[in-house]
Amino acid sequence: MRTSFKVHAVLAGGASALMLLAAGLTLLPGVLPLPSPRFLAVLAGVTLFPLLGWALFRGLFLGGFDRDLQWAAFRCLPGRVRLALVALIGAGLVLCVVDAAASGDRQNAEVRDGRYVVFETAYGRRGTVEVDRREYEAVREGDQRGMTTIPGTALAGTALFVLVAGEVRRADGGAVSTTSAAPASGGTRN
Q1: Element (DSSP H or E) covering residue 90
Q2: Buried b vs exposed e over 99-120: b needs ≥16 C-beta within 10 Å?
Q3: What global pTM score does this model have?
Q4: Which of 149, 177, 183, 188 is most buried, most CB within 10 Å of its CB?
Q5: Sorting pLDDT into bands at 50, 70 and 90, what band is 80?
Q6: Are 159 and 129 in contact (CB under 8 A)?
Q7: Mean pLDDT over residues 118-122, rounded?
Q8: Buried-exposed string 7-29: b where 16+ CB fall within 10 A, e elsewhere
Q9: In terms of C-beta density within 10 A (0-12 exposed, 13-18 middle, 19 or more buried), how is residue 59 classed?
């Protein structure tokens, strides 16, 4: 596998691990010094879309490989790499479920004129509502978790896709060059 595939996968996997770690830390009690959810959304978009776009372009358009080879290529990856990526994807899915279960009818926590307000989405009470500081912090952590969980899971899938595409590309390149290899019987070339 070419080094560029490995670097691409490390960038996507590392960003995924950081985002999912930040999302997981929001479940702990206390307030984390994380940036605002809007900044996290911009950061996730700046990270996710170029890496995902380049991975799709590489895998689908430049690779030209058969989809049946993807499972075989996945099995050719080292066991620890497979385990790490599947664990990241699994952790991301668990965090998505936890976030969906924990999120209520309130979102978009803000401070306006020294008051804490959130946007209420409950049926019949749609609009901005003033809340206390504890509720504000809970809604803000939920927003932060949502802004890091989904892109983090997508980046883990991107890293896996890039490594599978690189493995397929390596196998395709290796199949062409085996015609000049030494005979299987152990003899030497003439």
Answers
A1: helix 79-102
A2: beeeeeebbebeeeeeebbbeb
A3: 0.77
A4: 149
A5: very high
A6: no
A7: 78
A8: ebbebbbebbbebbebbbebeee
A9: buried
Mean pLDDT, rounded, of the chain: 80
User: Tokens in use for 155?
Assistant: 């980046």
Question: What's the average model confidence in pLDDT over 28-48?
Answer: 79
Look up residue 54 and give its two tokens.
Answer: 């380049």
Quote the strand ranges of the chain, DSSP E. Answer: 106-112, 115-120, 127-131
The C-alpha angle with vertex 183 and arms to 181 and 185, in degrees rounded to 5, equals 150
Q: Are strands 115-120 and 127-131 parallel, antiparallel or unpaired?
A: antiparallel
Q: How many residues does the chain have?
A: 190
- Answer yes or no: are the C-beta atoms of 140 and 37 closer than 8 Å: yes
Is the model's pLDDT at 28 over the cut of 50? yes
